[in-house]
Automatic annotation (TrEMBL):
Record-linked InterPro entries: NAD(P)-bd_dom_sf, SDR_fam
Organism domain of life: Bacteria
Family of the protein in this entry: Belongs to the short-chain dehydrogenases/reductases (SDR) family.
NCBIfam families for this protein: PRK06197.1
Record flagged with keyword Magnesium: no
A Pfam family that the UniProt record links to this protein: adh_short
Keyword Oxidoreductase annotated: yes
Organism: Streptomyces echinoruber
Molecular function in Gene Ontology: oxidoreductase activity
The name this protein goes by in its record: Oxidoreductase
Keywords: Oxidoreductase
Length: 308
């Protein structure tokens, strides 16, 4: 994968892709590049207006692009179900679990889950399970889940998944990103056991400048902190176009391994996509099984197609 860039994305004509959080940042870049190579892309966004605006931007940059916005609020399992039921496609070739929130003040989703765990993990767990029949119907389909190197700050606590005993925003974020990797680990194992032609892989963008970093300070009205983050992003971070490359690689490059973790090649921060280090606890079979069982219980979404 040395020097891999968006120019190496193969022809995707006839493929259907779903990208969550596609109204900006890494998600919009991912959706635009997939559409540029011919995929029909569903922009799964929490805001209908922002989703339509993103679709219009993509259409302006990519003549003939097939990018269609659809409403998806990962903080509301009813919305996740409505989205999955409303998709008109019997086959989905690519699901990119990209959307996320980071270091927010304590809050809960519509279903009562701690927001970061609920959105970053449980919402995507439910979405993937609901779309699984369509993924299994597409030969060579892929599920790419965006984690973060911040996962290295903390393992999950299976006895306190919703951080009810003590909430620390960065630890909660790290646990949600560890959950992304454990989910990918267990999904890859179950797909292999089922003999399914679907690849589950995980990625991280390194340090890429997006709105994710400013959302927490903005939510709390910490304007100085928000300005500092914006300044650091301008000086240090790589652009979203570079941050999306690991996702695009895992989504489209030949030979991507199940349960692989791809990120930037230089110091886990920037550069072309490359295999990335991950904390040992993200490969823990027992932890991944326990998290899977709890995730099915909490969401009510059971991966029936992978049972038996």
């Amino acid at each position: 994968m040395t020097g891999w860039s968006s120019d190496d994305i193969p022809d995707l004509d006839g493929r259907v892709a779903v990208v969550t959080g596609a109204n900006g940042g890494l998600g919009e870049v991912t959706a635009r590049q997939l559409a540029r190579r011919g995929a029909r892309v569903v922009l799964a966004c929490r805001s209908e207006a922002r989703g339509r605006a993103a679709a219009e931007r993509i259409a302006a940059e990519v003549p003939g692009a097939r990018a269609e916005p659809a409403l998806l609020d990962l903080a509301d399992l009813a919305s996740v179900r409505r989205f999955a039921q409303s998709l008109p496609y019997d086959r989905i070739d690519l699901l990119v679990n990209n959307a996320g929130v980071m270091a927010l003040p304590y809050g809960t989703t519509a279903d009562g889950f701690e927001t970061q765990f609920g959105v970053n993990h449980l919402g995507h767990f439910a979405l993937t399970g609901l779309l699984l029949p369509a993924l299994l119907a597409a030969p060579g389909a892929r599920v790419v889940t965006v984690s973060s190197m911040m996962h290295a700050l903390a393992n999950i606590d299976i006895t306190d998944l919703n951080s009810e005993r003590r909430y620390r925003r960065w630890i909660a974020y790290a646990r949600s990103k560890t959950a992304n990797l454990l989910f990918t680990h267990e999904l890859a194992r179950r797909l292999a056991a089922h003999g399914a032609d679907v690849t589950a892989a995980a990625v991280h963008p390194g340090y890429a400048a997006t709105n994710l970093q400013t959302a927490g300070p903005r939510a709390e009205g910490r304007r100085t902190a928000e300005r500092v983050v914006r300044l650091v992003n301008r000086v240090v971070a790589q652009p979203a176009e570079a941050g999306a490359l690991p996702t695009l690689y895992a989504a489209t490059a030949p030979g991507v391994r199940p349960d692989s973790f791809t990120g930037p090649s230089f110091a886990l921060w920037r550069g072309a996509p490359a295999p990335s280090w991950r904390a040992p606890w993200t490969l823990d079979d027992r932890a991944s099984r326990l998290l899977w069982t709890e995730s099915e219980r909490l969401t009510g979404v059971r991966y029936e197609a992978l049972k038996g």
